[in-house]
Design a protein that fits this description.
Chain A: It is a multi-pass membrane protein. The complex is a heterodimer. Chain A is an all-alpha fold. Chain A folds into 3 domains: 31 residues; 32 residues, no CATH class; 204 residues, MetI-like fold (Orthogonal Bundle), CATH 1.10.3720. In chain A, helix 3 packs across helix 12, helix 4 packs across helix 7 and helix 4 crosses helix 11. By secondary structure, chain B is an all-alpha fold. Chain B folds into 3 domains: 72 residues, no CATH class; 218 residues, no CATH class; 221 residues, MetI-like fold (Orthogonal Bundle). Chain B is 68% helix and 1% strand. In chain B, strands 1-2 form a two-stranded antiparallel sheet. In chain B, helix 5 runs antiparallel to helix 13, helix 12 packs antiparallel against helix 13 and helix 23 runs antiparallel to helix 24. The radius of gyration of chain B is 37 Å and the shape is elongated. Classes of the chains: A mainly alpha, B mainly alpha.
């Protein structure tokens, strides 16, 4: 695939370029829906398609009115503030508990390691609708349904597998002799953890945290059931908007979320490279 | 321990070590056998590891595993009938002849249960529960809740006509309540502070049904309305119980009000009688229908397979398990549709994902990393953003139809219906799940050495043979991993089918959500969820066998 040999036949040439065109179309399929909503969100009309003014690149066809609506509409602002309150709390909870457990799991002698791992990973495997149903039943029994605490706990549970997976992956390359060296030089376990182990696994912890954050920030099924109107988050507001009466403000919100994802993706990618470099692997 | 003592200890242990070297097991520095010492160190290590894991494990058990267990429990739990109609359930135990209506005892038991349930406003809940099994039960129960007050009125009137004292709450309290309760009640300052009602000794033996009915009356009005039994005339069902008890005699009762009771006992055989069955049939003639009773009896067990049967289009009838009527069969179809559409989505993902993964793994590292971003960006983009994009694109007035009309492929008045059907769901979900196919495929393909294909070609294979016979078989593990992953994710999807699936493109998960939030048939939702969960876990087990959980990678 890497380069076409000079002796290639016409058929091979045709296939070589044909294949690239096919791949280009698939990439187009992957990216186009996300890219299309960005210009549409600047639509001056309440339509979901390109107006003639927009196609002529007439400035009159574009406006920021949908963004304005997002930043002034109390419904959207309430949803945004709920999201901003719930996601960080859930992230902190899952990162703290998840990192500790990942360190425990990476020790050499852990009884029932397989079973424990299966339980900890299970929130990622079980379909969201089932988690949501179970949590709804159980949380309404114990009075957590419709509370911030309930939503935060539920989201933390959903984010934990990501923290476990990323942090355990980082710990695989962790050199145990470093902690031993630190201990032999007189550091107590807490100092060793914060001064030696933590800086090395930090990239894994942060990217796990980002995964946990995006899981909570993006989550709609569980919050739909475990939360009540008071805990309406951004995705929930988008979901009801899409289901009942679709308003172009959704496209403005979507564009903002795409920008956030690009930022997060960049951070994760940089962290991954840094982590690989620290562990002496090729940055790839 | 002081230094000196430590020194002495060490000396002693040295001596023992020398000793042991000659005779016993090897010793560690502190003088213990090396084996025990190592075991101890290992145990400490294990405990430390477990102590680190324990908080999270506990957290997950409480916030996640317990809810799942609760759901599994709810899928078989059925205590509402036996809790709300306890006397009826017991009375129905010896109802064998199901072609005939149950006896008067069962109707009387139903009257007592129903009166209490209606007062506690629980009868409608039982009605809706039984309505899942037999339609019409809900309205029957709701209507009977209003008519139940009249059952037994005929006897109440005749008792009062015989002796107006029967109308007095005080008569009943003197007859029924224990002295202790009467004393404590006399001291209570508000109705809310009344003690829990207690029967007088002996009355339950003399008048079993009346005592039970009166206790039910007293406790219910106290807890529900904070009323005082000393100021309220009993329900008509209590008079019904009294009539039935007195027909059987008073059992030589000689407590308070014995004279009045004996007078009534003598008069009762001459009362105008009306069967309880007829009184119920007056409220609603369905009560004279054996089907209603069969339903109550079939669901009187505290645990039931009824929800699971309903989830596979079967039902529990008095004659055993049988299929639902044709027009009510829904869930098998829905499961089939869910699986079929998930397969379609998985297949489209292979079709689109394989070329991309192939391209990425055969390009120079720098280019492929750049192109990989095009895969990762959709992966990182909010699910709702992608779904809303498709909702906007696929609309009849949307961008895709506009382009098709503009090219001239489609007439303006015959725009394609791309959304709110199966096609919409498949397109949108293929897009959403495609990265989950590409990433595992890519990670497998990266490890396939290019020299194999080159070797095949140098041995004379054509491009196609080299690919199909050499390259493709090595990429199969990646296909397997990607397929199972995509299929597992697709089968439990909720949001996207809900938004773009319309009526025909929805999954079983949408039905689960419907039963939780709209029809409130939680048991059925739990049963459907349990089946889906079992399916996913089986697939996941397969995934673990083929790929291994540890190979789950992110990004």
């Amino acid at each position: 695939m890497s380069g076409l040999p000079p002796y290639a036949s016409t058929g091979q040439r045709a296939w070589y370029y044909g294949f690239r065109v096919i791949c280009g179309l698939i990439f187009f399929f992957l990216m186009a829906p996300i890219l299309v909503i960005i210009p549409l969100s600047f639509n001056a009309q309440d339509f979901f398609t390109f107006t003639p003014e927009m196609l002529r690149l007439d400035p009159a066809g574009y406006s920021l009115q949908h963004y304005e609506d997002f930043f002034t509409n109390p419904d959207w602002q309430q949803a945004l503030s709920n999201s901003v309150r719930i996601a960080p709390a859930a992230t902190v909870l899952s990162v703290v508990l998840g990192t500790l457990a990942a360190i425990g799991l990476s020790q050499s002698h852990v009884p029932f390691k397989g079973a424990i791992m299966a339980i900890l990973i299970s929130p990622m495997i079980v379909p969201l609708i089932i988690s949501a149903a179970g949590m709804y039943f159980f949380y309404s029994r114990v009075g957590l349904q419709g509370t911030y605490l309930g939503v935060v706990l539920a989201h933390a549970a959903l984010g934990i597998p990501f923290v476990i997976i990323t942090v355990t992956a980082t710990l695989v390359g962790f050199d145990r002799s470093l902690t031993r060296a630190s201990a032999s030089l007189g550091a107590n376990p807490v100092t060793t953890f914060f001064k030696v182990q933590m800086p090395l696994i930090l990239p894994g912890v942060i990217s796990g945290g980002l995964f946990a954050f995006i899981t909570s920030f993006d989550e709609v099924v569980v919050v739909l059931f475990v939360g009540s109107a008071g805990q309406k988050t951004l995705p929930w507001q988008m979901f009801t908007g899409l289901r009942d009466q679709i308003s172009p403000t959704i496209l403005a919100v979507a564009t903002i979320l795409v920008v956030i994802s690009v930022a997060l993706l960049t951070v994760v990618e940089l962290l991954r490279r840094r982590s690989e470099r620290l562990r002496g692997m090729s940055p790839g | 321990m002081t230094d000196a003592a430590a020194g002495m200890g060490r000396a002693a242990s040295d001596a023992r070590k020398l000793d042991a070297a000659a005779t016993g097991p090897m010793l560690a520095a502190d003088g213990r056998p090396l084996k025990a010492s190592l075991n101890r160190a290992l145990r400490a290590q294990k405990l430390r590891a477990l102590a680190l894991i324990a908080p999270l494990l506990l957290f997950i058990l409480v916030t996640f595993i317990a809810p799942i267990a609760d759901m599994l429990f709810r899928s078989v739990e059925n205590q509402i009938v036996s809790e709300t109609l306890p006397r009826t359930v017991i009375a129905l135990e010896d109802w064998q002849e199901t072609s005939q209506l149950p006896g008067e005892d069962a109707y009387a038991a139903l009257a007592y249960d129903f009166m209490e349930a209606a007062e506690r406003r629980e009868h409608t809940r039982v009605g809706s529960r039984l309505n899942y099994e037999t339609t019409g039960m809900s309205s029957l129960f709701r209507q009977s809740g209003r008519g139940i007050d009249d059952v037994g009125e005929i006897y109440a009137d005749q008792f009062v006509a015989l002796n107006p004292a029967w109308e007095e709450p005080a008569t009943w309290v003197a007859l029924m309540a224990s002295e202790r309760w009467q004393d404590e009640a006399a001291e209570a300052e508000t109705d809310a502070a009344l003690p829990r009602f207690e029967l007088a000794p002996g009355i339950a033996e003399a008048l079993p049904e009346t005592a039970d009915a009166y206790r039910s009356f007293a406790r219910t009005i106290m807890s529900e309305d904070e009323d005082d039994p000393r100021a309220e005339e009993p329900w008509n069902t209590v008079y019904l119980a009294l009539y039935r008890d007195l027909l059987a005699g008073t059992g030589g009762y000689d407590g308070p009000q014995a004279a009045m009771l004996n007078e009534a006992a003598a008069a009762v055989p001459g009362f105008e009688a009306a069967s309880v069955q007829a009184q119920f049939a007056d409220i609603n003639e369905d009560w004279a229908d054996t089907e209603v009773w069969e339903t109550i009896e079939a669901f009187s067990d505290p645990y039931t397979a009824g929800y699971f049967l309903a989830a596979i289009d079967m039902q529990l009838t008095p004659d055993g398990i049988e299929a639902q009527p044709e027009e009510q069969q829904l869930y098998i179809l829905l499961f089939q549709r869910t699986i079929f559409m998930s397969l379609m989505i998985t297949f489209s993902c292979i079709l689109l994902g394989y070329p991309i993964a192939y391209l990425l793994s055969n390009l120079p590292m720098r280019t492929s990393n750049l192109l990989l971003i095009l895969v990762l960006l959709p992966f990182w983009t909010s699910l709702l953003v992608r779904t809303s994009a498709w909702k906007v694109l696929l609309q009849q007035e949307g961008v895709i139809n506009d382009i098709l009309v503009w090219i001239g492929l489609v007439a303006d008045d015959a725009r394609l219906q791309l959304i709110n059907n199966q096609l919409g769901t498949i397109i949108a979900m293929t897009h959403i799940l495609l990265p989950f196919m590409i990433l595992p495929l890519y990670s497998v393909m990266k490890t396939i050495p290019p020299s194999y294909v080159r070797a095949a070609k140098s041995l004379g294979a054509t491009d196609w043979t080299a690919f199909w016979r050499v390259y493709f078989p090595q990429s199969v593990p990646g296909i397997g991993a990607g397929c199972i992953l995509v299929f597992i994710l697709a089968i439990g999807y909720y949001i996207t089918p809900e938004l773009v699936g319309g009526r025909t493109g929805t999954f079983i998960s949408n039905r689960i959500a419907f039963h939780i939030s709209s029809s409130l048939n939680w048991g059925l939702a739990a049963a459907l969820g349990s089946i889906l969960l079992a399916l996913v876990l089986a697939l996941y087990w397969l995934y673990d066998r083929i790929v291994g959980i540890d190979n789950v990678k992110l990004g």
